Amino acid sequence: MRKAVRVGKVIIGGGSPVSIQSMTNTPTVDVEKTVQQIVELQMAGCEIVRLAIPDFESAKALKQIKEKVSIPLVADIHFDHRLAIESIKNGADKIRINPGNIGAKWKVQEVARVASEYKVPIRVGSNSGSIPKEFEKYERSVALAEAALREVRYLEEVGFENIVVSAKSTDVLETIKANEYIASKVDYPIHLGVTEAGTYEMAVIKSSIALGYLLLKGIGDTIRVSIAGDPVKEVVVAKKLLIALGLRKGGQVIACPTCARAEIDVEEIAKKIEPLVEKTNLTVAVMGCVVNGIGEGKHADIGVAGTKSGVVIFRKGEILKTVSHTDLEKELMELLNSVMNEKT
């Protein structure tokens, strides 16, 4: 089991559930907009949020932001170690430093001493875009991992072990290999992600492969699904990924891919009920026809399957009733609400 690291009220590692992270894309100095986005992220299921700290004004803004939110805040630091120290003093719950650009060993250790005083953990986060030149002689995945591990050793030299490690590449296989390497060398909790994964579809594909593979191997204690655009989408995808892997409870809609046999609009129905189902621990099956519909959906809490004359509604594989196409939405919502009330 990996060491446990406390970030505000959230525990990373130590056998705790895998936590979901994201990052704001508002200017941190704009306190109002940043707080608004943090609240939106938290409502979507984000448990730790990272903020860019490019200057001292942003570091100072952390104090105001922290007073208005309840979620742990991570200060993302590049180039200037003094920004890390200022962020810690202004209430950051964790610091992220990049081995590729944070600077000399003494700078890293100075940050560690202040972090130790304030009991704030440090994430050593390397990525493929900023591997230090001295590691370029290695295979890229090893270089990525060793860049992070060198920084870890710098921290350990001054007795600092309140550490989270991450190694992110834009390449799926590099990300996997780098994290396997790190997991074999240290027992600090690991933050997973594919950096610069792209726009929505490619980002989901890359992240699902890399994070899913590593999590199934028991590697990874907190995750971020990086998507270009609205960060709320990152949280939604991360949550669904953990549910699909069985690492988190949550409602989900399973739906057939549809074919010429479909007697109902599977996509439309699934999309209508997804927002409601996601707030539960129920599994709801939406099947286009009865050929395989009831059999394939029998493990679901509730299911529907289209027929030529109507729609079959079933629960745990047992048919409850057949309703008309026009009454389906009303009947399904009533059943959903009834089952949810039973479970509360």
Per-chain topology:
Elements: E1 4-7, E2 10-13, E3 19-23, H1 31-44, E4 48-52, H2 56-68, E5 73-77, H3 81-89, E6 94-97, H4 105-118, E7 122-127, H5 140-157, E8 163-168, H6 172-185, E9 191-192, H7 200-216, E10 222-223, H8 231-244, E11 252-255, H9 266-277, E12 283-287, H10 293-296, E13 302-306, E14 311-315, E15 318-323, H11 328-343
Parallel strand pairs: 3-4, 3-10, 4-5, 5-6, 6-7, 7-8, 9-10, 11-12, 12-13
Antiparallel strand pairs: 1-2, 13-14, 14-15
Q: What is the strand tally?
A: 15
Largest sheet: 8 strands, parallel
**Secondary structural class:** alpha/beta
Principal-axis shape equals elongated
The CATH class of the largest domain, by name, is Alpha Beta
Helix content: 40-55%
Can you give the mean pLDDT?
A: 93
CA-CA gap between termini: 34 Å
Describe it for me?
Pathway: Isoprenoid biosynthesis; isopentenyl diphosphate biosynthesis via DXP pathway; isopentenyl diphosphate from 1-deoxy-D-xylulose 5-phosphate: step 5/6. It catalyses: (2E)-4-hydroxy-3-methylbut-2-enyl diphosphate + oxidized [flavodoxin] + H2O + 2 H(+) = 2-C-methyl-D-erythritol 2,4-cyclic diphosphate + reduced [flavodoxin]. One of its GO terms (molecular function) is 4 iron, 4 sulfur cluster binding. This protein has 344 residues and is α/β, with parallel strands linked by helices. It folds into 2 domains: 4-244, Alpha-Beta Barrel (TIM Barrel); 252-343, Sulfite Reductase Hemoprotein, domain 1, CATH 3.30.413. The protein contains 11 helices and 15 strands. Strands 8-7-6-5-4-3-10-9 form an 8-stranded parallel beta sheet. Helix 2 packs parallel to helix 3, helix 4 (105-118) crosses helix 5 and helix 7 (200-216) packs parallel to helix 8 (231-244). The longest helix has 18 residues, at 140-157. The two termini are 34 Å apart. The mean pLDDT is 93.
